[in-house]
Amino acid sequence: MATLTFQLRGDQLGHFQSLSGEGNGANRVVTLGGVTAFGGADQLYTIVVEQAADGATEFANGQFITIFDAAGKVVVPRTGVQPDIEQGLGGGDEHLILPGSNVVIDLTGLEPGPAMVTYSAADEVAQTGVGDNDGQLDFADTRADFPCLASGTLVDTPEGARDVASLVAGDLVMTEDRGAQPILWIGRRHFRFAPGADPRRPVRIAAGALGRGPDGPVPAADLILSPQHRCLIRHAALPALCGAEAALVAAKALTGWPAIRQMAGCRAITYHALLFARHAVIRANGCAVESFYPGGYMLAGLDPRRRAEVVACLAALPGRDAEGYGPPARPVLPAGRFRRASTRWPVPGRPGGV
What we know:
- By secondary structure, this protein is mainly β.
- The chain has two domains: 2-142, no CATH class; 149-342, Endonuclease - Pi-scei, Chain A, domain 1.
- The protein is built from four helices and 26 strands.
- Strands 2, 3, 4, 8, 9 and 10 form a six-stranded antiparallel sheet that branches.
- The longest helix has 12 residues, at 304-315.
C-alpha cells in the first residue's frame, strides 16, 4: 500500500451541509446543499491519500484522505473514500464526495457559497476527449500545470506579432490594461505524451471558433494552449453570471464547443508561460488570453528551480512578493460553472467575439 500527496486550490474543495439523491440509473441526481469553498483559487491545500494500492491511478474505495492547509494544519481529519455511494455518483472524472466529513472535491471549481451543487450521470465523465472518461477521479487530474502557450503562437508586441518561443525576459509585450510591459520571467516546459489519456495535452481553438471581434475572426489562426490557460470570453449572459461583461475561462471548459477540442493525438509539445509585474490580458493569435498568475496553486505546479526563479522575480518588485502579487486582471469563472451556464446560451459554442 502506498501513501500519495497532491495539492488542490481552495476553490476545488468545499464543505456541504446536506446530501440527497433522487431517481435511479441514468436519471439519478445527487444534490449537495449549502456548499462553501474552502478558499480562493490562490490558496493551496495538501491532500494525503493513504492505503492506495501499489500502481493505483485513481481514488477508490478503501483509501483514506487527510487534508492540510498551507500551514500544515489538519482541516479535514482522516476520512474514507467511497466513490461508489449514491449509485456511483459519489465520484466522477472531476469530482469526489467524502460523505464522512461532508467535503467535496470538484476540480472544475466551486463558488464561495453557500450554493447548491448537483451531480448526475452526465457528470460522471468530463468533456468528450478530455481525460480518460471512466467516471473516476484520477490522481493525475489533480496535478497543477501552469497555463502556457504552445510554440508558434504569435503574441502582440510593440514591434508586431512575435512567436512566443522567440521571446525572452525583458522583451515588451502589449497588454490590454497597461500597454507595453516587460516580461519578468518565461517558463518553458517540453512534454512527451505516452499513448492514452493525459490531462496535460493541449487544447486547440480553431480560427474563428470564438466568433468575430473588431479585427476579424477570433482567434485569427488556430490557437494551441494548455488546458489550464484562460481565455477572455465576452458574452451578453456574463453580467448575470459574474457581474462583468468579460471573464477568464480555462481552455478545458471550452472543449466540446464547435471547433474546440483537446488534441488527443498530440505526442509532444513545448509550452511557454509569460509572467509580468501584474497579471495581464495579452493577445495570442488575435485572442485575448491571460498571462501567468503566480498564485499558490500555480506555483505548486512548478519544479523547485522554476518556483525559486518566480519568487525571486516577484521579491525584486518594490514592496511586493509572491503573496502580494495582486488580483487577476479579470473575473475568473470556474470551469464547471461556466460549462453548465454556457449550455443554456442561445447559440451554444458561439459566445461572440473576445
